Fold this protein.
Amino acid sequence: MSQECLDVLLKRRSVKAVDMKAPGPSEDQLDVILQAASRVPDHGKVVPFYFMVIGGEHRQVAGDKVAEIFQKQNPDAPSDKIEVERNRFNRAPCVVAVIYRQRRGKYPVWEQALTAGAVCQNMLIAAHAQGLVGQWLSEWYAYDDDMRSFLDLDERDVVAGFMHLGSPPDEKPQERERPDLGEIVTYWSPDAPVKKGDLYDRPKFPFPRLGFKPL
Ligand SMILES: Cc1cc2nc3c(=O)[nH]c(=O)nc-3n(C[C@H](O)[C@H](O)[C@H](O)COP(=O)(O)O)c2cc1C
């Protein structure tokens, strides 16, 4: 058993992009992250994902576009709010957009979407295992049509995540509440009542807010 490996899984926490420090992943570290991310279970080997690494000064180009779209949609927005949008891609030293691309064929798109989720999670784990930190974000602009065109996405593509990567802050993030296994695990038998996590069945804000339907 590799305790180190288990520790990464059991103790990993996301770090808010805004709290991340420079430097981001080195070229070698990023290569490991992308290798690990693409090594995922994939029914049919259809590779339903691709990556866009948004680093260096290109982060500002992407952020300027987010600000432009935000301003167009919110003409009365105060300048400080627009600056928040402009800085979206500057919070972390490196952002990797993981794009889920549905492949045509007999393999269910739901399963392809699960593969894309596994890609994102592997990315977080590979970052953490190298002493880096990550945060998986979508935010409103992942679902925005203008931003999607800017990133050259078509109807097959969905932003699975803008994966923010950087160095850890001085303070460790606090632990957050985790699922209570007593609420969601059933050792099944024909007459055991199944625990379906009803505790977690609470109303949520509708999201995505802008009407984009990924499936
Ligand atoms: C698909 C997906 C999209 C997310 N988008 C956002 C987001 O837009 N904004 C946000 O604050 N958190 C978002 N999160 C949650 C963050 O990744 C959050 O940091 C994470 O759930 C913290 O849990 P962890 O410490 O176990 O990684 C998203 C998570 C997932 C899986």
